Amino acid sequence: MSELIFWKSWSSSERKIYLALLFAFLTILSFYTFSVIRGDDNALNWNITSTAETIEVPVMKVQAGLFEFELNADNYLINQYYQGSAHDITTTSGYIFLIIFSLALVVLLAISTYLKRFWYLVATGLVSFIFVNFRLEQLEIFGWIDNTFLIIVLCLILPVSYYIHAFKYELEFVSRLILFTIAIAIIAVFIALFSQNQNPFYFLVHYNYTAPVVISILFIFLVSHEIIFLILYLISGSVNHQGKNNLFHFIALSSIYLLNLGLVYLKNAYVIDWDLIYVNAFLLLVMSTIIGILGFKQREIRYEHILPFQPLGGYFFLTLGIICFTTISYHTITLNDPVLETFEDAIVFSHIGFGVMFLLYLLSNFINLINKNLSVYKIAFKEDNMPYFSANLAGLVVVAAFYYLSNQAALQQGFAGYYNGLGSVYYHEGNNFLAEEYYKRGAIFGFNNHRSNYSIGELSYQQNDLDKAISSFKKATQKNPTEFAYINLANAQRTNFLFFDALFTLKEGARKFPESSEIMNNLGLLYKRTNLLDSAVYYMEAGANNSWGNKTNTTNIVDILTRNRVNLPYDSLREIFDSSDHLPLKTNLLAYSNNTTRWLDAQINSNQLDSILDLHQFTYLYNWGFSKLNNPSEKDVSIISQYATTQNNALYSRQLTYLSALMSYKRNDLTTSLRSLGQLQNAADKKGYYNHVLGIIALDQNAPQLAVDFFTQAVEEDYPGAVVNLAISLTEAGKKAEAIGVWNELLIKDSVEVANDIMVALTAPISTVINSDSDALKYQAIKYRSEDLDQVVRESVLSSINDPSFQMGAYSANIKRQTERGNYGEAKKHLDRLVQIDSSTYKNIIDELQRDLNMTMAADKLITLEDFDTELAEFWSASEDRVARDHFRTNGFQNPFNESDVLIASRFFKEQVKDLDLAYNIILNAIEINPYAVRLLKEYILQSIEIGQSNYGKNELEKLREFLPENEFKDFQQQVNKAIQDFESFSFPAS
After folding, report:
1. Which of 82, 89, 355, 911 fits 518 for a cystine, CB–CB 3.0-4.6 Å?
2. Residues whose CB is less than 8 angstroms from the CB of residue 821 and which lie 6 or more positions away in sequence, other chains included
3. Distances (CA, A) of 708 to 233, 729, 735, 965
4. What is the signed CA dihedral for 881, 883, 889, 892, rounded to 10 degrees?
5. Gyration radius of the chain over CA positions
6. In degrees rounded to 5, what are phi and psi of residue 890?
7. pLDDT at position 756
8. Which of helix, strand or coil describes residue 46?
9. Phi-psi group of 626: left, alpha or beta (phi > 0 → left; psi -120 to 50 → alpha; rest → beta)
10. What DSSP line would sit under 180-228, residue for residue?
11. In the 8-state DSSP scheme, what is residue 39?
């Protein structure tokens, strides 16, 4: 153990410095190990690109006669695919590298001052090389672009070094460190203050490339035979050696080790590609370095004439190790793979070359001693036959042979790494042109290296040069492939419409990276585009097994399940929704629940949404609002409206306004709903759709003439199905001749199957209808040909219908028709008969018909409110009560299609509250939205006259002529004229 902890016998100051360097070395070694484990994640990360697609989800169904309309609206589904980022170029790691190298340089400067004159001069030359390698002229200190600042730096460092070496030899090591640290700090301050370069220290990191790499390679050579030495130590280091046949074991283990190195070399040289687990070259370096801490001490006999191991040799070895692993770590975290290949070649070549020669050296000098099972490791560097220097020289020759056999690939890769570093500098500065030029040089020197080609691919992709991006990303997948290169290559191919190329690329990537959730996700999305949904879900589920990819992959899986209405247990749906904080996943889950009408009682968390929405927040908010359509609250509508009217959400305003209109409609607030839809009606790219929506709503509110207007505009916009909808609306509006014309056109041109049936219902002789066995035909005759039927025939048709549903439909249609015409007696008679036919199955329909009849008669003052609604009667009497006023105000403005409610509310404010303006505005609001309501038009005309706006009334009077029989119109015209005379007489009495 004393051999391992050799520093225990050193002085206190020597021990502290050595342990500090050892701690720094082990820390850097640990960081290197961590960076190797992180791999590509050191500099690349995943960007998730979200695209929003729509799916039609049912809003409501509307029945118009035998025709059913289904109003659908879009819900949003989020697709998420991965895109590899550009290299994460930050200056922090570079600055740390520069600081560590500078501090290591300080230690080496301090050590050099202890050397004898010849070796001191050699060391001084090497130090000068290091400072020249910094390329200080690039920093433009005071605008200098020559070597002036380099000369100043050397004039600061070298005199201090020589003064200590020649005149202050007794100066303590710590003091020497302090002096050189001060000198380096002064240089750093000058650079920080007077450099005209934007990032001077980051420039130093990459222009100071050669010295750290060369020092690292020399250190690799220095420790390259340590594993052979370890085998010797393990074989001959035991106390009892009898009967162990150490020579055989030593040769066998060494041969196995060297054979594995040979396999690594052959693999790297593309001679073999066997399915083996190869020795990791950098792991060998780590082992060799750790062994070398003791091994370098054992070699003291070879270099003690230059400097003693205690403490300078120990300091020197650890400092070189720090530089080596700091350099390798930096190029590992920046993914500069050509430099790492240079290091790998240096490790393999030197471990083979120096290892073989060291093995021959040991066998040549100590074969008998090894065979005698003696502790040869203690004298391993005291040669007898073959000089140690000769063995090392021969090892260097072997390394040189490997180097030339590889066509100097290590040097070429080194140049590639240098240019990659400069590319990073200019990319960081935003100079993409220079960055790309340096990356191109890196690609030339380092054949198919990942760093250069991936960076060129990223820059080309940003510039939308897809062909160049595809070519570069493809090269990046050839030698040192990453998941990022495969995904970016496939994305570029997909964007360039090379779908199958993208598919094959991702399949190849999946073979090389079978655990990649990102590749599996993107592969699943490609299969989704081909409608191979089983394959799509298979790959996405395979990727979702990885926890990080779970949210994204699951989001896409739910998208597919939603489109195909695959049944999911509600409890599972609820659990996933509640446990997830991933908005795209929650958005898709809401779309699923909306599409299957298995409503999720979701709540909006204010922390989830900003006042200015992004894509994820908007789609989640929209689908959430849609999930409330089943029973929206006033607060729900307010939330959607608030976001819709926020100026910075203009991109999403139309969709949110439409949603708030649907929510208002579901709350029976038709005024708000239809005014919002009216604003959207003129949207250039959706005009046909919004007229379609308004037409369906008009039919739902039993306003077929208004529906005709909307569907006519939808036809003009060539909206799909608009002609059929127009034909149905004309039929519902009683415009039989026009309806027949459109149905006939549909029958001839488009062979619409339903047109034939409806044409029979509209044109067949009444005798045919009466004698028909079709209850559907009789129902349609009652509904659409009421004017063709006298009372006797109508009664005969009604009594001949047998099917309860058609019977109910026919009676309901007749009652509504008679109520609209003011034939309340006949309407009441048929309602009484309907109650006798069925008072249970259709109770809700019968109750609604009864209330409509009562409200209509009350509005016409034929009965009082007390006759059928005591609560409403109480409100009528309480004209001073705020609750009563709010009730009638709401009833008056909320639903213009509920004509009786509007009329009663208007008269309440006119007769009870004496607020003529409010009474007038209630009617005005109603006819603006429901302009074909005859009773409302009549009331508007009369109230216009009462408030002195007879011209408005006269304008609407002409419109009314179209909807009234001639005799009824004349009677009302006389009533209007009398009202005008009364108003004028009251306003201007005779003097």
Report:
1. 82
2. none
3. 100, 5, 10, 21
4. -110
5. 45
6. -60, -50
7. 84
8. strand
9. alpha
10. HHHHHHHHHHHHHHHB-SSSHHHHHHHHTTHHHHHHHHHHHHHTTTHHH
11. G
What's the rounded Cα separation, in Å, for the pair 849 and 858?
14
944: left (phi over 0), alpha (psi -120 to 50) or beta: alpha
Buried b (16+ CB within 10 A) or exposed e, 268-286: beeeeeeeeeeeebbebbb
**At 987, which amino acid appears?**
S
Residues 900, 865: Cα–Cα separation, whole Å: 12
Contact (CB, 8 A) for 453 and 465:
no
Cα torsion at 620, 625, 631, 632 (round to 10°)? 140
- Nearest C-alpha neighbor of 649 from the set 683, 624, 620, 612: 612
Token output for 685: 């790219």
Distance CA(88)–CA(204), nearest Å, equals 19
- pLDDT above 50: residue 818: yes
The full DSSP string for 649-691 is GHHHHHHHHHHHHHHHHHTT-HHHHHHHHHHHTT-TTTHHHHH
Q: DSSP per residue over 738-751, as a string?
A: HHHHHHHHIIIII-
pLDDT tens digits, one per residue of 944-974: 888 888 887 778 888 888 888 888 888 888 8
Q: What is the 3-state secondary structure (H, E, C) of 375-426?
A: CHHHHCCCCCCCCHHHHHHHHHHHHHHHHHHCCCHHHHHHHHHHHHHHHHHH
Report yes or no: 875 and 837 within 8 Å, Cβ to Cβ. Answer: no
pLDDT above 70: residue 237 = no
Q: How confident is the model at residue 986, as a pLDDT?
A: 60
Q: How far apart are CA 494 and CA 500, in angstroms?
A: 8
- pTM of the full structure: 0.83
Neighbouring-strand partners of residue 80 = 50
**Cα separation, 232 vs 628, whole angstroms:** 78
Question: Please, are residues 922 and 930 in contact by the beta-carbon 8 Å criterion?
Answer: no
CA distances (Å), origin 239, targets 234, 236, 298, 366: 11, 8, 19, 18
Show the DSSP H helices in 223-336 as ranges: 226-236, 246-268, 281-298, 300-303, 314-333
Gap between the Cα atoms of 615 and 591, Å rounded: 15
| Mean pLDDT value across residues 916-921 | 92
Contact status, residue 923 vs residue 939, Cβ threshold 8 Å: yes
Give the helix ranges, DSSP H, for 596-649. 615-627, 634-644
**For 68, left (φ over 0), alpha (ψ -120 to 50), or beta?**
beta
**The two structure tokens encoding residue 613:** 């929405």
Q: Which long-range contacts (CB under 8 A, 24 or more apart) does 917-925 make?
A: 917/947, 918/889, 919/943, 920/944, 920/947, 922/889, 922/892, 922/893, 925/671, 925/892, 925/893, 925/896
Residue type for position 798: L
Query: How buried is residue 498: exposed, middle or buried, by Cβ count under 10 Å (0-12/13-18/19+)?
Result: middle
Q: What is the pLDDT of residue 548?
A: 46
Q: Give the whole-angstrom CA distance, residue 634 versus residue 653.
A: 19
Using alpha carbons, select from 849, 846, 935, 939 the residue that is nearest to residue 897.
935
Write the pLDDT tens digit of every residue in 126-156. Answer: 999 999 988 888 888 988 888 899 999 999 9
- Provide the pLDDT for residue 238: 57
- Dmax over Cα atoms in the chain, in whole Å? 151
Phi then psi dihedrals of residue 743, to 5 deg: -60, -40
938: tokens are: 């009549």
Calpha distance 403→342 (Å, rounded): 10
Q: How far apart are CA 167 and CA 291, in angstroms?
A: 37
Q: Which two tokens stand for residue 509?
A: 């990537």
Distance of alpha carbon 74 from its chain centroid, rounded? 20
